[in-house]
């Protein structure tokens, strides 16, 4: 029996080694620095297959692991080299698009000094970009560019000034008589008002769509939606009223007073990803006279009975990644259409709860707004 067990263990070890060798051999050695690297930094790197390779300088460490994904789920163990650096490659290719990650050194969580940081998981996290096959729509091109500016608006309800980022389309500063519709676009849980322009490339998506003549130019406004802090897993404790007050009573009046907007519900939209979708749904239903265009991006769905007066709603846009079980939004869209709503669904191919899904969703939604 012992000989049999030893034989099985030996065969298993050979099989494992063989699989590892095959896996390693299958990795194409055409790695290039990630587009989000700090200036002059070689690592992290990405190859044409979507594998990521990391290199961390930590000569006194006993263990180094890279945790990928929102919140740092999963991990890639790095091996120590003779020069004291730690190097490792993901076991398989990653999904296309943007990913948060952090570095665990001897049990401590740190950011990778080789790459830029992005606010996610309620902290500044490292970010890596796996080039997408359709990345051209959010690429930086030689086209007229809009302007993204930070504004500080008074918020009596929170007894402070709050921050928003406002995208104005190309030509806004020159066409001083033209007024524009506005999309209020919300981030997800653990992120902030920087997410849509930094991780989402919303400004570049807009610039490219406008340059191609595919959309009517409009303004985008991003602001912080976490007016009452809750921890992950306790979203049921989130109260919408404080943020609703900030958005409806403070931010929108400020934007209408300080930017050339068409200050009418028929020219105002609200959309959000994930938790921002939950905020969008709740606020649009609570305040049906404020917005005429609704967008939930991996953020739930509307039912026909949710909306009391469908004549006020010009568009309901629902989207998700194909890995997010999108059947529910497809079914919800069908029911909305049958009830007489202008409802559109979009499913991002081969993506999950991640920014490539939401970049593509904005690309699909933007041409439908303000028709």
What's a quick, concise take on this entry?
With 371 residues, the chain is α+β, with helices and mostly antiparallel strands.
Distance between the termini: 76 Å
Radius of gyration: 23 Å
Per DSSP, what share of the residues sits in E-state strands of 2 or more residues? 25-35%
* Side-by-side strand order of the widest sheet: 12-13-15-14-16-17-18-19
Would you write up a description of this structure?
This protein has helices spanning 2-25, 195-198, 202-211, 241-258, 275-286, 327-338, 355-365; strands spanning 32-33, 45-46, 52-57, 64-68, 76-77, 79-80, 85-89, 97-105, 108-110, 117-120, 123-130, 147-155, 160-168, 182-186, 219-223, 268-273, 293-297, 315-321, 343-348. The protein is α+β, with helices and mostly antiparallel strands and 371 residues long. The protein folds into 2 domains: 27-131, Sandwich (Immunoglobulin-like), CATH 2.60.40.10; 136-368, 3-Layer(aba) Sandwich (Rossmann fold). The strands form 3 sheets. Strands 12-13-15-14-16-17-18-19 form an 8-stranded mixed beta sheet, sandwiched between helices. Residues 1-24 have low confidence and may be disordered.
């Amino acid at each position: 029996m012992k000989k049999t067990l030893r034989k099985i263990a030996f065969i298993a070890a050979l099989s494992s080694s063989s699989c590892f060798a095959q896996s390693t051999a299958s990795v194409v050695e055409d790695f290039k620095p990630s587009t989000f690297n700090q200036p002059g930094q070689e690592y992290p790197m990405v190859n044409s297959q979507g594998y990521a390779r990391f290199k961390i300088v930590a000569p006194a460490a006993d263990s180094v692991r890279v945790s990928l994904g929102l919140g740092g789920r999963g991990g890639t163990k790095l091996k120590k080299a003779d020069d004291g650096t730690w190097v490792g490659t993901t076991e398989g290719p990653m999904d296309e698009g943007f990913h948060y990650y952090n570095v665990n050194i001897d049990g401590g969580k740190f950011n990778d000094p080789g790459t830029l940081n992005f606010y996610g998981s309620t902290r500044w996290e490292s970010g890596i970009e796996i080039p997408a096959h359709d990345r051209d729509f959010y690429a930086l091109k030689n086209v007229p560019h809009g302007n993204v500016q930070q504004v500080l608006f008074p918020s009596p309800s929170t007894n402070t000034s709050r921050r928003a980022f406002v995208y104005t389309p190309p030509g806004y500063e020159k066409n001083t008589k033209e007024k524009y519709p506005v999309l209020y676009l919300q981030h997800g849980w653990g992120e902030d008002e920087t997410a849509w322009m930094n991780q989402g490339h919303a400004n570049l998506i807009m610039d490219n769509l406008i340059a191609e003549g595919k959309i009517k130019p409009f303004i985008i406004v991003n602001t912080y939606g976490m007016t009452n802090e809750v921890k992950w897993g306790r979203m049921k404790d989130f109260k919408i009223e404080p943020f609703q007050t900030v958005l409806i009573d403070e931010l929108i009046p400020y934007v209408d007073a300080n930017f050339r907007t068409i200050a009418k519900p028929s020219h105002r939209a609200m959309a959000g990803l994930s938790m921002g979708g939950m905020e969008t749904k709740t606020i649009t239903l609570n305040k049906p006279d404020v917005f005429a265009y609704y967008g939930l991006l991996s953020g739930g769905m509307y039912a026909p009975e949710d909306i009391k007066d469908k004549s006020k709603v010009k568009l309901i846009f629902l989207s998700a990644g194909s890995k997010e079980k999108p059947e529910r939004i497809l079914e919800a869209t069908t029911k909305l259409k049958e009830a007489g709503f202008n409802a559109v669904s979009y499913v991002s191919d081969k993506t999950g709860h991640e920014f490539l899904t939401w970049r593509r969703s904005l690309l699909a939604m933007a041409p439908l707004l303000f028709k």
